[in-house]
Structures are given as C-alpha cells and as structure tokens.
Amino acid sequence: MTNKIKFGTDGWRARIAEDYTFDNVRRTTQGFAEFLKQQGLAEKGIVVGHDKRFQANDFAATAATVLAANGINVWLTDGATPTPAISFSAENLNAGGAINITASHNPPEDCGFKVRDPNGGAIPPHDLKKIEGMIPDSVADVATMKLDDAMSDGLVKKFDPNPAYIERLKSLVDFAPLKAAGYNVLVDCMWGNGAGWFPNLIGDGATKITEVHNERNPIFPFMSRPEPIPPNVDHGLAYVQKIGADVAIINDGDADRVGFGDENGNFIDQLRVYGLLGYYFLEVRGDRGPIVKTISTTKMLNKLAKRYDVPVYETGVGFKYIAPKMMEVGALIGGEESGGYAFRGHVPERDGILAGLYLLDLMVKTGQKPSQLIDTLFEMVGSHHYDRIDSTFDAADKPAILARVNKAMPSTIGGLKVIDKVTVDGNQFIMEDGGWLLVRFSGTEPIIRVYCETTHEDKLQAILDDGMRIAGLR
C-alpha cells in the first residue's frame, strides 16, 4: 500500500530512498499542483530550488517536470540556492509560490519538500492540510513529462536568483561600513548553501572573511547534522581562536537559519541572538513595530518590547505560524528558537544571510564585539540562560507521554514556583522569575524537546531535569 505523506512544521521530510523517493516527490508535487489550481495560483508559475543534499538537484528537476505536465510554468534555479533567495524569488517574480527541495538542518540521510506562498512565506497549517489531502495515493495519477521537453516547450526555465536577491539585501543593509570595518569574520557554511555568500557580499574590503566547511559534502563531516547549535558548531568554532576572528557566523544547510560565536569562540545561543536583534532594531536603529516570536524563544523580547512600547505576539513553533502573523500585524521582526529570524521589508521567511549581515552591522554601529554586546543587552533586561534536551522516543509511547505532560501541573520546577501553564504548542510552564520550561514534540522528527529559559543560571540543569521527569524520560 502506498504510504501517506504528512506535512510537519515546515513541509515534508523523510529518509532518502526509504520514504523520500522520486515517485513520492512526484506525488507530493501533484498534490501541490492541484492546490495551486484550486487557489487560482497555477497561472502565475512556481519557483523551484534546492540545497546541496544527495540528489537534491535531481529531486528539484523531478518536481519541476510534474508542475510543467500540469501546465504550470516553472522557474528552476540553476544551482543550489539559499532558502531565503528562493522565497524572495517567489515574491520578486510574482509567482504563485515555491517548492524548495531541502531538509534544512535534518541528518544527512533525509531530504525534504518545502512549499511557500506567493509572498515567499510558509503556508499556514490549514492550507498544508489541504495539500496533504490532494496528494494522490498512486504515482499513476501523477502528470509527468521529460525535463528536456518541458524546457524546449518553455514550461521550465532555468534562472539565476542571486542578483535580484543581492539587490534586496543591499536595500536593507549598507554594505560599505561592513566592508570597511576591518573585522576578521569566520563563516561556517556547514557544507551547505551559504558557501561563498559573505565573501561575495562584503569580502572585497578591509574586512576579512574566512570560510570553513564550504564545499558540497552531503554527509556533513564533523557534525551529526547541519544545525547551527552545539555540538554541530564545535568544529567550526575551534577556528575562531586559531585565526583570531572577531565573530563567527554559522549558517545551516540551506542558509535560512543562523548561529553565532563570539570573539572567544563561545557559542551565542539563539535566544540571546534574538535578544540582540531586538536591541539592534529598537535601540540602535530606532525602529518601531510589532515583534512576533514563538513560545519557545526568549522573554528578553517581551522586556524590550515593554521598554520601547511595541506589541509582542507569541505563536506556536514554526514559520507556518510566524509568517502569517508577521503579514497580519506588519511585524518588525519575527523569529524562533531554532535560529530562524525574519525581517520587515523582506519576505516573511527565515534569512540566515541577512541576519548575519545585521549582526555585523550591530557590531559596526556600536563598536562592540559579541561578548560586549551580550553584556550590554543583559544590563538592559537582566541575564537570561537557556538550554534544551532532545530525546528520541518510540512512536508507540507518544500517547502516554502526551497524556502525562498534558496532565502535569507541578507546584515548582527547579525550585521555582510555577505560576501558569500555556498550551499554545506543547506544554509550557511559566515560573515565578518570568522564565519557562517547554515540553513539546518536534513537528519534523521523532523527537521530544525539553527546553527552558531562566534568569537563574544555577537552576538551569535542575529545571531541565524536572522537565525530563515530567515527560517520563527520567
């Protein structure tokens, strides 16, 4: 029996050659084609791009041929392309949306299928369900044609998305001060789509860019996956002190997420990065506007928002929630705990390249290195400490784990009084210091996550331990 394809937090991801096959890519593309026709978007054409994973370019070409066979014009990227550039191309070309063949930060054995709307943003959950429902059970019900025929008929056109995307970046960030700053910047490309971008954008001045892991290698050596968090970042961060870098910028495999290291080679967690971005826009640039954040990211933003009198909107985890909310409220910034940040004046999509440029601009405008910026931020909002534990689980145990966590309402966690429980996405316990513990299942992998943020560094491990006990994992 043909397997049912289910969309998670950010599209469909699966193990290559097991569930992620050419036939299943064809089926999924057919479902998206039917959705586009239903929504009146098919005549606008679709952008199709890919990352550097195993056979990603061939999977992208396969998707393009199915769209073409359905009478839908396709702009097919002429090489591996950062996710934000693909999303921007959907907006820039006035397309009906985009397909992106990428598994982002997943392990090397996986590939994925992201779909985007005409604005380049994530498609909301109710529409993802519609697409799922339109995926045919059999590949026999998929329209197909050869790529050569589709190209000769003009249905598929290869294009270079980079020049227009670069012009958008230049409209948002002044490159000249970044080039002239004379910084020594380490960029860990994680063997992915971010390779070459920072040297090309700002590497022709006094600032020196040194890249590591900048070749295509689908097995992602020195890391379990191209996700910009420890321990995957450790090998790259070791170069900071070797070369005397002022900052490290770390892009995930498709360059929509970003991590940072300070001038000492210490990782800066994603919540602190989002706090720094909030500080950059609200204080340094003097911008104003709503902030959109998932429940799994920092309360430092709530404190900054109160200080500068801007609203904060909290959503479930994933850009399928953030993107629609950003569009609805005209947000200044939107972001999530995994290192994905989106910005006003751009597409409502994570952009790890633009986020890196913004952090460099923050350094230039303040004259401070990353560790000093963290000190400045903490002077304003107090110190905040974050960590997370990811655990795999047997699928058969999920109902019992879920029931256990749903029922839990402890009086204290890590010795701190629990004052509220939020169930927007998973179970979040709010503690007396304003910190929180969140227990939720991943939307893309068979993983349960236990994460927390607290102002009490000495209680961080105790809070996580209690979270694992609440989930029944200890």
Spell out the blueprint of helices and strands.
Layout (H helix, E strand, L loop, with lengths): L11 E4 L6 H18 L6 E5 L5 H14 L4 E4 L5 H10 L5 E4 L8 E7 L8 H10 L12 H6 L3 E4 L2 H11 L2 H6 L3 E5 L8 H6 L5 E5 L21 H10 L3 E5 L6 E4 L5 E2 L1 H15 L6 E4 L5 H9 L3 E4 L3 H11 L3 E3 L5 E3 L8 H15 L3 H12 L3 E8 L5 H10 L4 E2 L2 E7 L4 E5 L4 E6 L5 E8 L5 H11 L4
Parallel strand pairs: 2-3, 2-4, 3-6, 7-8, 7-9, 12-13, 12-14
Antiparallel strand pairs: 1-5, 4-5, 9-10, 10-11, 14-15, 16-21, 17-18, 18-19, 19-20, 20-21
Helix pairs in contact: 1-2, 1-4, 10-11, 10-13
Defining traits:
alpha/beta, six-stranded antiparallel β-sheet, 16 helices, six-stranded mixed β-sheet, 3 domains, 37% helix, TATA-Binding Protein, 474 residues, Alpha-D-Glucose-1,6-Bisphosphate, Chain A, domain 3, globular
Largest sheet, strands/sense/barrel: 6 strands, mixed
Q: Shape, please?
A: globular
Share in helix: 25-40%
- Which sequence of strands runs across the widest sheet? 1-5-4-2-3-6
The number of strands is 21
Integer-rounded radius of gyration: 22 Å
Global structural class: alpha/beta
* Total domain units: 3
Instruction: Report the total helices.
Output: 16
Q: Supply the CATH architecture of the largest domain.
A: 3-Layer(aba) Sandwich
CATH class wording of the largest domain: Alpha Beta
Low-confidence residue ranges: none
Residue-averaged pLDDT, rounded?
96
Strand content: 15-25%
